[in-house]
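Subject: for your reference before the review

Hello V.,

The reviewers asked for a structural picture of the protein, and I figured it would be easier to keep everything in one thread rather than splitting it across files. Below is the amino acid sequence we used in the manuscript, unchanged from the supplementary table.
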Amino acid sequence: MFVLDVHSRPLDPCHPARARRLLAAGRAVVVRHTPFVIRLRDRTVADSVVQGVQVGIDPGSRHTGIAVFRTGHASHANRTGLYGIQLDHRGRQIRDKLTVRATLRRGRRSRNLRYRAPRFNNRTKPQGWLVPSLRHRVDTTMSWATRLTRWAPVRTVHVERVAFDTHVLSAGRPLEGVEYQQGTLAGCEVREYLLARWGRACAYCGARGVPLNLDHLHPRSRGGSDRIDNLVVACIPCNQAKAATLAEEFLTDRPKVLAKVLRQVKTPLRDAAAVNTTRWALWRALKITGLPVAVASGGRTKWNRSRTGAAKSHTLDALHVGHLNTVTGWPSVVLVVAATGRGTYSRTRSDRYGFPRLALPRTKRHHGYQTGDLVRAVVPAGTKTGTHTGRVAVRSTGRFNIRTRHGLVQGIHHRHVRLLQRADGYGYIIRPEARHSAAFSPPPEGGGIHAGSNR
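And here is what came back from the structure prediction:
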């Protein structure tokens, strides 16, 4: 649990049992419900020994993992996970809404309407500009990084600056002077990229949840190279059955699979470039905060996770970012934070032609609540008897809907509702965290994906 002193300055986090004792003794008060933050009434930073914590961030396209951990006194490479957050982005919804808006505007301009003068002199974009769907990922991650600095004494931030080194992927050879391309980390970037490209499934049969090898479409024994467009991931039976034959010969009786494989290996690295662009923008934003920022790559994170036997998840990836020896403690639960937005500026709904068809009410708050508030409703009798906790959707009639972890409960009267936390643009769900992979054994060199055939 996050702890603040009497002046709302962050102290070291404490165990939930200790937080309950402090609240029961009247020595602390609740500042925030989710994440749970308390403020002490009788202690300041000057009266305490603050060790500090560190934050790991694993940026992603749909989800970003954030981990708060403490390092050991003897070795800063030993970590103990304290808190895990999975931040769900709404970049795809933003992209779809902008596409719809652009389509409606384009349609209106092409109709026989009044003349509208062109406005092309305001279309310049500053250097480093990101499209709104990508900017959203950076802004929401920075928002939570800033919140954590207010609730915990953050000393260092570890972030993945690149997921894949696109230069190395295109070159197909080690680069001189790049440390992670030498020794035990050699090949991790290529393996991690191929797993992401092929969805962690065999390229030939689509098998999932099995060990995957690297396979050359054009075997090296017949003049093939190690370039990324000549590599796929294949399960062990397919890899052994293909042997040193060409992919065209191996898939002769399956022309659709062959066409799919050849089409997918020719796709450009735009996905990797987009992820790298977002991570670089996040790194620059973190540097502005003044905190020490340590950077690493996705290949290093995967290698760390393979050595500790951790399960694949966004929060555990964040816990394994950067230089690491071992993990001595794991967060038992993870807080799933979904970006929901704060409503809309639009006061109308449009028809299929893009013209307004009705007006929306300007009053957002009804009976002291507004949509998005975190509430608890205790219904004593009726078909909805019980306690319901979640985000509320208000209605002017006083009958509210509450979205809980078990589903939607409709028609709860406002007199049964009690406020827990005002809406802040996010929805929260707490779920258990899987600590170790289902079939953990000492991993092979290369971080969980086998070296495969070198033919």
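For the response letter, the relevant points are probably these. Residues 171-185, 438-455 have pLDDT under 50 and may be disordered. The first strand starts at residue 2 and ends at 4.

Happy to draft the paragraph if you're swamped.

O.
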